[in-house]
Structures are given as structure tokens and as C-alpha cells.
Specification:
With about 300 residues, the protein is an alpha+beta fold. The protein has two domains: about 120 residues, Aminotransferase class 4, branched-chain amino acid transferase, N-terminal domain (D-amino Acid Aminotransferase, Chain A, domain 1); about 160 residues, Alpha-Beta Barrel (D-amino Acid Aminotransferase, Chain A, domain 2). Helix content is about 25%, strand content about 30%. It has eight helices and 17 strands. Strands 8, 9, 10, 11, 12, 13, 14, 15 and 16 form a nine-stranded mixed sheet that branches. Strands 1, 2, 3, 4, 5, 6, 7 and 17 form an eight-stranded antiparallel sheet that branches. A hairpin with a 2-residue loop joins strand 15 and strand 16. It is globular.
């Protein structure tokens, strides 16, 4: 990662090299952090952040589940994100806000530790490579089960929960795949290591619902609106593993991964190997994020 100028920490911009925490911070020992991944795009109509308010709202919801109320309002966090982008002279970039338990006392109980907040930005292209957006990726069904709602709630984008995602990602990469499909504790499809999933069958689009231990993705919600506007029926439902191999198309959605088709799962080609529905949705998504045509009022221009 290229070092930039500043990182926003607890209300002020500090030099990149000075954005540090104590090694005895609670987050280091117990994973008590909550974060978002947000993208700014250098659109044809100017630089803009996609769904900035929605992401910061989800961040505050993530912290609330773990009794870690953010010390900053959604509006303050949105302003801080824009200030950080400008301070680093960027237009298109990735934005990472984190709320975390800092240095205080050590022990499982986090409540005596301070709540700190930081926002960093950096340049980041296509998550799985530019080729993936056009030609799709090869993935596997992970042997690791997705975290469950009564262990590490998937509705919270908590740092500690991503140890589970790391296991799935590591296995998939070491086995020669780009990513994974994770099943929930009922052995139904949940999500990727860090992305939501959609399946196309006979012109209908299916996606796992909240009951399948998913993180309710911001991009997922945008894609559901796009698909409906394109005339597709979208169903949130439980999806058995066997359905994966009979789908006409499968694709990932997420801030980092955007709209990425899946061409094979467990070395089984999906459908005919083409992705007509996925590409129609991707085109509309890129019309918003690359051209700046925003019928949903999701872009914050700066």
C-alpha cells in the first residue's frame, strides 16, 4: 500500500506515519473493531462517494450491536471521510472508517476501554482484478461455515468476525480459486468471504436473506433496485448448495468486488459460461459509479 498524507483520527487529520495505536489496545487482543468499506469514484461528472450516508449508518448499527456506540454522528463521519479524501489529493479511492476499542484495561469486558475512530483512504482498483469484471472468476464452496447470528452476528461488520472470512479466503486462494462461497449453519448458501451472492435461474434472480447469516450489503441493496428496474423478479430466500450448480448465472456484489460474475464453482461451469443478466446489471451499476448518472441519489459529489 502506498503511503499517503493523512489519516483522520478522533476528530482531526494526522500525518500518515503518526496514525498509530498502543499495542495494549483492546482491539489488538480481542478484535473489538467495526468498519466499513466505501468507494469514491472519479465519475464523468466529477468525484463522488457511493452511498456514503448508508455506509456510515451501517457502521453505527454495527457498533450498537456490541454496545460500542460511535462517538461521532453519521453526518460528522461523512464530513470526515470527504475531508480525508481531499487531504490526500484523491478522487477515486477506497475509504475505510473504523470504530475500535482503544487502550484502557485488558480483559474480555470492553466497556472500560475508550472508543476510538479513524478514517483512512487509499487507491484501490478492481478487488479481484479488472479481468474478473468482464470474464468472471472461479470459486469453491468453502469447508468453513459462515458465522451464525447467535455467535458473531453477521449483521455487524465487526473486525473479529472476519477471522471466519479469512479462513475461507485462505483456503480458496491456496486451492487455486479466486474466492469462496460460504454456507450457513443450516448448510444453506450464505455469502462469499466478503461479498453477497446472487443467482439467476430462468430469468428470476435469487439471493440469500438475513436469515442466512449474511451481512446486508449496501451494494446488494443497490443491485436489487437496479434489477427490479430492469424488470427482473428478485427473491430473497434460502438457497441449498445443489442450486449453485444448476443456476444459469451467479455473481458477487460488494463495495470492493462491485458486480463480479462467477464462471465456475468447484470446477463446475455455471450455465453456458456467459453472464447476460449479470452484465446488464453491471452496466447499470457502472453507469452510476463511472458515468455519474444517479437516479437513486446515491452519490455524494465533492
Amino acid at each position: 500500500m502506498k503511503e499517503l498524507n493523512t489519516i483522520w483520527m478522533n476528530g482531526k487529520l494526522v500525518p500518515w506515519k503518526d496514525a498509530t495505536i498502543h499495542v495494549l489496545s483492546h482491539v489488538v487482543h480481542y478484535g473489538s473493531s467495526f468498519f466499513e468499506g466505501i468507494r469514491s469514484y472519479n465519475t464523468e461528472k466529477g468525484p463522488a462517494v457511493l452511498a456514503l450516508t448508508e455506509h456510515m449508518e451501517r457502521l453505527t448499527h454495527s457498533t450498537r450491536i456490541y454496545r460500542t456506540e460511535s462517538p461521532y454522528s453519521v453526518a460528522e463521519l461523512c464530513t470526515a471521510a470527504i475531508d480525508t479524501i481531499k487531504s490526500n489529493g484523491l478522487k477515486g479511492c477506497y475509504i475505510r472508517p473504523v470504530v475500535y476499542r482503544g487502550f484502557g484495561e485488558l480483559g474480555v469486558n470492553p466497556l472500560t476501554c475508550p472508543i476510538d475512530t479513524m478514517i483512512a483512504v487509499w487507491e484501490w482498483g478492481a478487488y479481484l482484478g479488472e479481468d474478473s469484471l468482464k470474464n468472471g472468476v472461479d470459486v469453491q464452496v468453502s469447508s468453513w461455515t459462515r458465522i451464525t447470528s447467535n455467535t458473531l452476528p453477521g449483521l455487524s461488520k465487526a473486525g473479529g468476525g472476519y477471522l471466519n472470512a479469512q479462513l475461507a479466503k485462505i483456503d480458496s486462494v491456496q486451492n487455486g480459486f479466486a474466492d469462496a462461497i460460504m454456507l450457513d449453519n443450516n448448510q444453506m448458501v450464505s455469502e462469499g468471504s466478503g461479498a453477497n451472492l446472487f443467482f439467476v435461474k430462468n430469468g428470476v434472480i435469487y439471493t440469500p436473506g438475513m436469515g442466512s447469516s449474511i451481512l446486508v450489503g449496501i451494494t446488494r441493496n443497490i443491485v436489487m433496485r437496479i434489477a427490479a428496474d430492469l424488470g427482473y423478479k428478485v427473491e430473497e430466500t434460502t438457497i441449498p448448495r445443489g442450486f449453485i450448480y444448476t443456476a444459469d448465472e451467479i455473481f458477487y456484489t460488494g463495495t470492493a468486488i462491485e458486480v463480479t460474475p462467477i464462471r465456475s464453482v468447484d470446477k463446475v461451469k455455471i450455465g453456458t459460461g456467459s453472464f447476460p443478466v449479470t452484465m446488464k446489471i453491471q452496466e447499470k451499476f457502472f453507469d452510476i459509479t463511472r458515468k455519474g448518472n444517479d437516479p437513486y441519489k446515491l452519490l455524494t459529489f465533492f
